[in-house]
Predict the 3D structure of the following.
Amino acid sequence: MASIPSPTIRARRLRRELRRLREAAGLTAESVATELGWHRSKMIRVELGHSRVTQQNVQDLLRIYQPSAEDRETLSTLARQARLKGWWNAYGDVLPDDYIGFEAEAAAISTFQSLYVPGLLQTEEYARAIILAGRTTADPDEVDRRVAARTARKALLSRDVPPKLWIILDEAAVRRVVGGHRVMRAQNARLIEACGNPRIEIQILPFVAGAHAAMGGPFTILDYDDPVLDPTIVYVDNDATTALLEEEEQVARHRLVFDHLRAKALDPDESAEFLKRVADEYPSQ
């Protein structure tokens, strides 16, 4: 799978830079929209990412902002890169939101999952069982494409410098029998194998830990190499709705919750032993 700069990340950088230049020029979104003959809502959509930023949009805005030659070159490059197609574009019908594009360049992925093993560590059969359970009316082709997309995501863990992956799993995620005992034995073996990877930390949050700070549901924190260029994002997904949170207060709140979960969960060595005990409980046939 060819590696290209994530268009999703570049589009986000482009929006942030355009807003920075507007503010540096002392201009309001309304005044810029008026000068360009745009509705004010279009400026808001462009800066918030609710509307695609075209090359022409960028040129029009740069004409008003009058940036330095260096900034102009940077923005032109970002605009070109934002129009590229990531591998996930081929699965646009089954990957409807931007999460995969943001995940593609993450330096660290910290996730809490309460009901199932996260996609990056799912076996194909486990993934298929999860997808079938959530989409009882899906046709076989759609299920196959969803499985293929989830499998393709795993290439992230094989890149030259893979992201640091920190997973906290509620005990329910490894106790719930998904797809039958054979599927669970293979899935559990995958988790045990991952415990030996120096780039992956797995912690189990046991039932005996009681109530905890993430009773409201799972979430994922995505950190990047340069937090100035690419600030942290929190992704919340409960199947009914998804949200990408970027405000500093929202990120700080979820990071604090994750720290509380880490403190309550078994440490990585204890978690590996826990997974081995669970594996022994599955019938061999």
